[in-house]
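Data card: per-record layout.
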Amino acid sequence: MKLALRKARLIVHLLHGMWTVATRFPRATAAQREALNRAWSLKMLRLCGMRLVVHNDSARLDAGALVVANHISWIDIYVINAWRPTPFVSKAEIRQWPVVGWLAQQLGTVFIQREKRSDAKRIMHELSDRLSAGELMCVFPEGTTSDGLTLLPFHANMFQAAVSAGSPVQPLCLMYEDAQGRQSTAPAYIGELSLGESLDALLRGGPLTAHVYVGEALAPGADRRSLAAQAEQTIGAALRSLQGTTMGASAAAAPLESAPVAKASAAEAGRSQASQDIQDAQAGTLIDGVDQQGRSA
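The structure for this 297-residue chain is written out next.
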């Protein structure tokens, strides 16, 4: 498919996301909104020529946890939401991006002005309050994107939110694989690349597999620096494991069943529609599950 046509389909999908958030979210339960978000994200991956493989999903926490992940690309957010929708902390500039910024704001993203130290303190308190209320929040502690081949040093500031709230930390490792079973840097949004150039590189680099390794939860403890170091060590070990043992494992992996669509009570029609949305998205985006050793689960 020509690059221009694929881009046009992505634009239509983004606009459909705006329509969904504007018209269906106000009447939907929290569980239905999560299902709609996940279905939309799954289709986003499919349109980008990407499938999702989840490792060690049994370690997943579904409430009251600070999710921390390595950061490679703007597509990371949709990969994580395709696995399990989670609000993010993001740089303030993204709020100004056409369509994407509006969608991010409607989905509960917390925007931070990194150049202002006082803003980091404000965000930390907001994160702590939301974690204490049982919400999930996701941050990228490297503070910027990398090529994904190694980790950048983790910043400890945002880990204070988990310490203050007494909430566990869920480490998450992301890695992208090309059709030849090699780690791919095509999705990397780094250096002087514009968003458009990054999208071109991602589309030309496909088909791709996005690997998500779910690390075991870390107790918050009393020191944010120690907690950040533990998370960095866990994600680093997961990255090395993925680099060394999982290439090609995705082809033999067993499909991972969709998470329950509606845990809370909701109208049967709403549950059916949300479930259908996920089934429609999964028809073109394979979600596989493999265990910690990279074997089929």
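Known properties of this structure: The chain has one domain: 3-290. Residues 248-274, 280-286, 290-297 have pLDDT under 50 and may be disordered.

See the next section for split statistics.
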